[in-house]
Amino acid sequence: MLKSNIIKKLLVVVNFIVGLFLILTIIFNNKLTYSLYWILIPILIFLIVMFIYEVDKGLIEINQNEGKSIRRSYNDITVVSTVFYGLIYLGIEFIDMINSDVRNNIYLVCGFFAITLLYELFVFMAIKSAKKETSELLNKKK
Fold first, then answer.
1. This prediction's pTM
2. I need a surface site. Which of 21, 41, 48, 113 has the fewest CB within 10 A?
3. What is the DSSP string of 57-83?
4. Burial 63-99 (b: 16+ CB within 10 A, else e)
């Protein structure tokens, strides 16, 4: 639980810093701000995956049938969204290898920031849904 709280706080801080660098990128529009933005994105991905791992360890299985269905739906949503988000990031990196100035596009930075927010929204909604279903099953079992 302590590790999960530390990861939550780090996620908030890194998200704030990514948003700050997005604003700095829009204002200054130079290579330094673009580079700082793209350096923070893998750190953010790592923290989100660590958070998903910590939450996954905390889910309890109530019943063989019902517990597996909750855990499976949670795992499916988080895995699929993480894979798509990672593929988008890797696609950007691959295109940047071919055309070296792709990551310095303000529209790409803003679009990827929006995709990042959607990805985090999907992950946190999946976590909330799994916790809600688990608490309903616990209350139902009592």
1. 0.86
2. 113
3. HHPPP-SHHHHHHHHHHHHHHHHHHHH
4. eeebbeebbeebeebbeebbeebeeebeebeeebeee
State the Cα–Cα distance between residues 135 and 137, nearest whole angstrom. 5
The torsion angles phi and psi of 111, rounded to 5 degrees, stand at -65, -40
- The DSSP element (H or E) to which 21 belongs, if any, is helix 2-28
What is the token pair recorded at 64? 């063989």
* Predicted confidence (pLDDT) per residue in 49-93, tens digit: 999 888 877 665 555 565 566 666 778 888 899 999 999 999 999
